[in-house]
């Protein structure tokens, strides 16, 4: 297995995996939308994507990171927003390898932390993240989070 950071011209490598990831989260399959979204993020330097490839170059997993910028702390951190491994490639250490790659990238970039969220019923992911050293955060005692729906 090889893990590489992809460029905008290589987004097609992860399009199918990203579409499968979206379907996993109950969104309709839309490969064209998936590829457009990925290409736009990469072209605008809005995300970083690492892909896990088999020795013959078949993509089997990916992770996508987004910057999280804090004015008060005057630092850029990273959100591990997406992590997906194809079902037939699970339980082979690919998720762990992608997390380690993302962690090393964030450290090298000077981030103070790498953050993620997962569904409360995604027990396999929770176990993986906790095994990789992520600490479940309690609700913030200082700040509330608000969201304004725009659509």
What low-confidence regions span 5 or more consecutive residues with pLDDT below 50?
Answer: none
Q: Whole-number average pLDDT?
A: 92
CATH topology: Aminopeptidase
Give the fraction of residues assigned to helices.
Answer: 25-40%
* CATH classification, class level: Alpha Beta
β-sheet strand percentage:
15-25%
The radius of gyration computed from the alpha-carbon positions, rounded to a whole number of angstroms, is 16 Å
Order of helices and strands: EHHEEEHEH
The main β sheet shows up as: 5 strands, mixed
> How many distinct helices?
4
Annotated CATH homologous superfamily:
Gcn5-related N-acetyltransferase (GNAT)
Give me the count of strands. Answer: 5
**In the CATH classification, which architecture applies?**
3-Layer(aba) Sandwich
Structural class by sheet pairing and helices: alpha+beta
Separation of the first and last Cα atoms:
41 Å
Strand order of the largest sheet: 1-2-3-4-5
Instruction: Give the overall silhouette.
Output: globular
> How many domains comprise the coordinates?
1
What descriptors fit this protein?
alpha+beta; 23% strand; 5 strands; 4 helices; Aminopeptidase; single chain; 151 residues
What does this protein structure show overall?
There is one protein chain. The protein has a 5-stranded mixed sheet with strand order 1-2-3-4-5, with helices on both faces. Helices cover 33% and strands 23% of the residues. The chain has one domain (2-131): 3-Layer(aba) Sandwich (Aminopeptidase). The chain is an alpha+beta fold. The chain starts with a strand and ends in a 20-residue tail after the last helix. Helix 1 (12-24) crosses helix 2.
